[in-house]
Design goal:
The protein contains eight helices and seven strands, in the order E-H-H-H-E-H-E-H-E-H-E-E-E-H-H. It is α/β, with parallel strands linked by helices.
């Protein structure tokens, strides 16, 4: 179960807005986190707390396919992102590093920045504790849920290899 305060953004938040290109020579997640969202929300890193939830309208993560973007968000402490839609390469990059994403139009439409949400990833249940509302996003298929639970594709693969399970 995830629980956190919402940081909400609009449509077409691209990977340059998430982590500006001037930081792409950095690969350390903690350093990337210091610059997350700084060009569209200068105070983001001061406001975000571990476990908080990011929300956006449509096409979140569009632009270049850099893995730095979901990595910066996760390292900043965001536990999941809820949006109406995601750019497909961003979606895959996020899952690969174990950052869960949920698509739910109703939750986005009826949630404001600062609201507190409770999210059950595997059922898709999103509860807005501030407004007393509940929404349902499409839950993850079993394989993707396992990837996220493991912490991403690399950790999932390590665990499978360590247990000698065939991938």
């Amino acid at each position: 179960m995830l629980k956190g305060k919402v940081h909400k953004y609009g449509a077409n938040v691209d990977t340059d807005a998430i982590i500006p290109a001037r930081y792409l020579n950095v690969s350390e997640p903690a350093e990337l986190a210091k610059h997350c969202m700084e060009d569209i929300d200068r105070d983001f890193v001061k406001k975000v707390k571990p476990g908080d939830i990011m929300m956006a309208t449509t096409n979140f993560g569009c632009g270049s396919s850099r893995e730095h973007a979901p990595l910066a968000i996760k390292a900043a402490g965001i536990s999941c992102i809820i949006a109406k839609s995601f750019a497909r390469i961003f979606f895959r990059n996020a899952i690969n590093i174990g950052l869960p994403l949920l698509e739910c139009d109703a939750a986005v439409d009826k949630t404001e920045a600062g609201d507190t949400l409770e999210v059950e990833l595997y059922s898709g249940r999103i509860k807005n504790l501030t407004r007393g509302m509940e929404f349902t996003a499409k839950p993850y298929p079993k394989f993707m849920a396992e990837l996220i639970s493991a912490g991403g594709l690399i950790e999932y693969t390590r665990k499978r290899l360590a247990s000698r399970e065939i991938i």
